[in-house]
């Protein structure tokens, strides 16, 4: 059965999420030891962020198998540190893509933002015409080449 969980409630998935995050968005060309150090730092960061109102990591699980995850972060990168919170790390494992799971994750994180009293959430991406289907509105181009969007929580 397909379920959404806050990762803090089922921490046995933290290492897998941290590993996938490092593989997808982390520095490349690392030795195995460097990679493992980065993963361990991500694990600690996740665990230390649980009580922050502007931090949340939701995971999508079916039959005890991780399908994907999505987050709310207080900040995301060096650009526009004046904006908070951020919609971040939308990820669906490759073998599950194209099946509507990103929509499930999107809806879950926006509902979580609503529960937390968040009225607007920001995101940055280099994907063209992807997040608009989730209600994202373009704001500006960022200095790193990505585009800045916002989603108003209604």
Please tag this protein with its features.
single chain; 154 residues; alpha+beta; Aminopeptidase; 4-stranded antiparallel sheet; 3 helices; 7 strands; 29% strand
What does this entry look like structurally?
With 154 residues, the chain is of the alpha+beta class. It has helices spanning 14-25, 32-48, 101-115; strands at 2-6, 56-62, 65-73, 86-92, 120-125, 137-141, 147-152. The protein has a four-stranded antiparallel β-sheet, with helices on both faces. A three-stranded antiparallel β-sheet has the order 5-7-6, with no helix packed on it. The radius of gyration is 15 Å and the shape is globular. The model has no long low-confidence stretch (mean pLDDT 94).
Task: Write the topology of this structure.
Blueprint: E1 2-6, H1 14-25, H2 32-48, E2 56-62, E3 65-73, E4 86-92, H3 101-115, E5 120-125, E6 137-141, E7 147-152
CATH architecture, by name, is: 3-Layer(aba) Sandwich
Proportion of β residues? 25-35%
The level of helicity is 25-40%
Computed structural class: alpha+beta
Number of helical segments with 4 or more residues: 3
Q: How many domains in all?
A: 1
Overall geometry: globular
Topology as a string of helices (H) and strands (E): EHHEEEHEEE
Distance between the termini: 28 Å
Strand order of the largest sheet: 1-2-3-4
For CATH, the homologous superfamily is named as Gcn5-related N-acetyltransferase (GNAT)
The gyration radius over C-alpha positions equals 15 Å
The biggest beta sheet reads: 4 strands, antiparallel
